[in-house]
Amino acid sequence: MKVLKLYGHKKNNGGIVNFQNGLEVHNTDSSFTYYHYRTGSVNHSKWHNFKVIRFADQLLSWLFFAFYLFWLNPDTIEINSSLVPKAFKRDRIYAKIARLVKPNSRLVLFNHGWNYDFKNYLFNKNKNSVTEYFDTFDNIIVLAETFKKQIEELGVFTEKIKVITTGINLKDFLNVKIGFDKDKQFFNILFLSRIEKAKGVIEFIESLPLVLKSHNIITYHIAGTGSFLETTKNHPIVLSNGQYFKFHGYVRGKEKIKLLKSADVFVFPSYGEGCPVSVLEALAVGLPIIYTEVGALPDILKNNINGIKVEKHSSKEIAESIISMLNDETLRVKISKENRKYSTNFDLALIHKKLETIYTT
């Protein structure tokens, strides 16, 4: 069976690309044959900084896609997308081309998340267009039960909507040893995500002054890149407390695992999510997680079992949760062991098998 997957350039940063690149490890053990078709811009290309180049590239991509489908003749076509303005407009056209050129191929939408403002606009003001979009597909994959319920409310056939989380290659974490220093006085707090306002990075920074009242031998580690990075670095709290902050930039592979392993607490105060891989990686190394209940996280994490939940936009709750976690070594150890064991549910080998079941049923 031939499976054609549409997603971004394989060297692009981002959750969808990292997830698909991770799945490729398991393709060699499959009876399926997988192909990739690039959608969107090439982030590392200087030419794609020009709007006219991006526009021309997109037009050519849609045109070539039709010919590529004729040539490849795939059994299944999977479009990896998110319900955000740019991706919705772009991928809706790919879906129409696929339906027109290969009406008998299975067409699958893997929706990795959405912008809530845009989702509310579509669901309330432009319901017909989004319903028509979802109805185009034979199967729809979403990352959380809450996403499934909201699509069902549009009248989309329930049976074709499947919930599958993202995952991680657990073998990358097999040699990671978890140790606990009972006399530890120095703590590392980790924020690992795209550096955007909506990821809660400002609330993370603003939690520091409160934490310092209880623990002044501490480092706030911020890893990632994004449009809000310079704003973050120039925040007054960062400028006046630079000795407590360390910026790592974009990390991957062994460097990322090393950073995760060195941390004591993982903080993820996002305003909205799909199913963030960084949270699953934090589980795999046994990190207690301070998190907001957004996207798939209510399905995955349980308060006081995998970490501590906080309200969105609350630096005070983040600070109080960090302090509670650092003060209670017994709780940290208990959560750490639970998270390490629990992470086996998110092995990409299992996710890969679930996806192949969808492609054939």
UniProtKB/TrEMBL annotation:
Keywords: Transferase. This is Family GT4 glycosyltransferase. InterPro entries: Glyco_trans_1. Residues 182-341 form the Glycosyl transferase family domain. It comes from Algoriphagus marincola HL-49. Pfam families: Glycos_transf_1. It comes from the Bacteria. CDD domains: GT4_PimA-like. GO terms for molecular function: glycosyltransferase activity. Gene3D superfamilies: Glycogen Phosphorylase B. The lineage of its organism: Bacteria, Pseudomonadati, Bacteroidota, Cytophagia, Cytophagales.
